[in-house]
Amino acid sequence: MLRYRLSLLVILLGSQVLAQDNAEFFKSVSELRKKTEPKNLTKLLLNITNRILTKPELKNAEHFELISKRIPSKSAFREVLYLQLAFSFKLCSKKAKYIEYQELLKKSYPNSSLLKAFDKKYFGKRCPTCKKNNTPETIGKIEAKCMKCLGTGKCARRCKNGKIQGHSKMLKCTTCNGLGKCKNCDGKKVILQNCVNCTDGYSVTKKTIKAFYKEITKELKE
Ligand SMILES: [Zn+2]
Ligand SMILES: [Zn+2]
Ligand SMILES: [Zn+2]
Asked: What is the pTM of this model?
């Protein structure tokens, strides 16, 4: 019971910190929007964001993208738009597009306050599935049994410690160059593969993205 209470306390404290950060963040969205507002565009974006929020399907995000291209390139509204597009694709698990719009926002508005949205501490938490992997090479990856050696870490069955039985004597195994190790996993028995639950080592934060959408929708309604 005590343990349960403690973990509940941790969760509550954690979400409070996040909520405060988000409030500050959304305030900057609001301030930005006040500076720029083509009214009809606002209505259009509202409809689209609502749709993606309720149906995070790729075709909706792509439709959104198509419409976004019709917005005059000078429009400062684009700043918010890029973020919305990035999040739309994140919601639909389209990693490449998510990164594309993230980069576009960074490039077009290097000082944008919205860039905070890509700071993992605002909209992400370490993916529980792969969180033990923290080096740049292993982040976002999980270990999986090597199927080449079936998890033994050894070279082929007929290879005995790097040697193969020839006609009259043992010969050096050419597959493993005499090392006896599975080449696929380098004898580690496991290989690294992309995590099944995340794209970059951070949870797909649908919940927080949805919270963002709700906020932005509120902003647009005002
Ligand atoms: Zn993961
Ligand atoms: Zn071998
Ligand atoms: Zn192997």
From this structure: 0.54
